[in-house]
Amino acid sequence: MQSTAPKNVIHIEGARHHNLKNLTLDIPRDQLVVVCGPSGSGKSTLAFDIVYAEGQRRYVESLSAYARQFLPQMDKPDVDKVEGLSPAISLEQQTATRNPRSTVGTVTEVYDFLRVFYARLGKFHCPQCGKPIAAQTTDEIVNTVLALPQGTKFMILAPLVEHQKGTHKDLFAKLKKEGFARVRVNGQLYSLDGAPELEKNKKHTIHLVVDRLVIRDAIGKRLTDSVELALIRGDERLIVSVLDSDGPGRDIFMSTLSTCPACKISMPRLSPQLFSFNSPQGACPTCNGIGSVEYFEPDLIAPNKGLSLNKGGVIPWKSAYRQTQYGPMLKKLGTAHGFTLDTPLADYTSEAWHALFHGHAATGWPGVVPLLDLSMQQAGVWDHWTAQFRQSRPCPVCDGARLRPEALAVRVADKNMFEFSSLSIQRALDWLEHLEFIGHETRISEPLLKELTHRLGFMVNVGLEYLSLGRNMTTLSGGEAQRIRLASQLGSGLVGVTYVLDEPSIGLHPRDNERLLQTLRSLQSRGNTVLVVEHDEPTIRHADHVIEIGPGSGWLGGEIVFQGPVDQLLKADTLTGKYLRGDLFIAPPDTRRTASTVLALRNVATNNLKNLDVTIPLGVMTCVTGVSGSGKSSLVMDSLYKHLLLHMGQKVNNPGKIGGITGRELVEKVISIDQTPIGRTPRSNPATYTKIFDDIRKIFAGSKEARTRGYQPGRFSFNVKGGRCEACKGDGQIRVEMHFLPDVYVTCEACKGKRYTAQTLEVEYRGKSIADVLDMTVRQAREFFANHPALVRRLDVLGEVGLEYLRLGQPATTLSGGEAQRIKISRELGKRNLPGALYILDEPTTGLHMHEVGKLIRVLHALVDKGATVIVIEHNTAVIMASDHVIDLGPGGGEHGGQIVASGTPEQIIASPDSATGQFLV
Questions:
Q1: Each residue's pLDDT tens digit, 867-908
Q2: Is 571 helix (H, G, I), strand (E, B) or coil?
Q3: Where do the domains of the chain lie?
């Protein structure tokens, strides 16, 4: 039967995946299409779980069964028909890698071209003296020697032994047997018949005299033969010892390898592998190409300074030290430094603290850290338990460069590989464009420079000119990582592809939105379909076609409330249409809070921050803003957040560089609330995460039937044995492996998907079983448990953050990022008072509709009203205007940022002529 769907659309029929309600729609091809709607309404389900997943699944199924077993299995979406699909490429925020070896350069594949660039055009420079090193051919060596003045006497020497111990009698005997007559030992000439007796335990240098010559005509053939012989005996190295008439002369060191003539340091052959930190040939041998090493941190080993050694102050050693092998040494150390085993660690002097952890030679105490290092070396593994006492820091050998010294000794013009990779993308482009090559290098450089400048240019086009190629991907925001992959796709030049993007505007300052839109347009103008899940108003206004899903979230959504061009959306009676028209808007608060206490950071120099002194008011809502790359995350996450955690004795990696923090004793706890899932398995759900399920299980355990049967609250948990169905282990479904086909999940026949045994389900509260309650929405549960004030209060908090539509037992894997974040906030809101609590949120409006941003603002202010401090990193103008205090960084990104442009109320930011943010707040 021939398809009746138009050829210029992606035709979808009967989409019921997740909360979609049997949708049928046509998505125009080769256009910029925006999918919008409330958080959890089904936008990502339509774009990613149906359009992208079905396109990928069909491609995988076109391969052989043998090939499919090596590819990840893809589930078939719950949809009747999808037609008009083209190959699909997904650019999601969640796919940001956690691999510490992934950098901006490796992900964009610029690094691959860069390795060839340095291997073909780089020149070795001696790591010690810094002078250029060049390998020579045999003919070049001969010509260099022949260029000496006529009549010059010289010797051709082959270096055999360089600073090695031994008598070397066997070597002398072997050379004599082979017909050689002379050697130079430790700078003195000897006949092999009168070879010196060498001391066994001293280092010696032995050079074989291959030939003695005088520069005159017709010595070319003999000289060439001697040079070739010397190179063979000297392992591609030789010495031309020029004999001056009035002195000992001078040595000219030559090699067919790259070797420094002054320092005698030889270099390996240039190859692309030498510049790969993922290859043994190029990786720093100390850190194995990671760029950092782990070490034992005393503040983590002994976080509670109020304890003594005998009270377990050093966590790895919890037993009393009098009863251990270290007791006598520690007592001796204490006598030397004025402490006993009962002295609190807080009373130690700095010298005593250093001696305890790093050793004291006079008393023979090795130190806590060396002892832990030794135990790890003996065990041969860094176990998970000791990980809590370790932090990472830049490698002491390569200083974070990841490459071995030989690779770092190669330069193009004035920069080695690491120095180039540390430049911002814009500076790297400028440097490449000013390079000049001569001779055959010009032809070699042309294709490499073309690829490098093109790919770097694409990253500039998507607003990432402030990043460096060496920047670790784990340090990037979801939006930055997504735009990096977008830049890679721009370089691929594909046509006829469906690109599915998840909020590419996240992390992008309003100033830079236009460049992103131009990038999306360039993809679409090539003949590609660009399907964008987005809430950003400028992106929606620039779309060719808009699909709005709603009207609400969860089971209240899943319907198409509008589909068509933007001019029709502006007239539509939908949530998005009302905000675009201005019928609905988020009004700023009438008053601003003022702070009586502050946190003050001194001399913050993390990444691009320029020795800032920053004052953060406590007990108010502060928004840190600025253009992309201006240093917001460096200030809030790397400097403030990590150092507060360190002060509380918690493990952090690579804390920022600061001079100090005052007022940190006013912060009792610091919490970062992000959009990571509340659980990675279907077992996690809103009820378990918010502890609501604990109250519900107690209510069921208190019922008459449960008391009669002797059931405790644990009987009503699907995570432990007892009341759960053992056939499916409480999952409600069973996975059937299909090898090269996607795994099939079938409803458990024993419990019919209820998760519990029949006996457990017989216990009811007000006519409902525990499985029935898990299937309730927050709103329904609020009415059902109206007689339980404590439980109602927790459920009300979920309602306050706009999640009354969620089912209590909804698997965490089906929640959107915005829903997960609001669940985390609700858990904190459920606490009665929050003085001393500091909450940090990095771009919390990700995934939120304009209407939900208003709800988020009210929730954040509710946290502040309970005595907490809230710090938000955000570009959303509504959030900025709702803040009590704003810190605006800039003026640009990367090296052009790192300064405080303006600070104060939003009105003061608007009044600042230097603030790029203030222009968008008016």
A1: 999 999 999 999 999 999 999 998 988 888 999 999 999 999
A2: coil
A3: 9-96+476-581, 136-256, 292-394, 598-675+851-920, 686-811
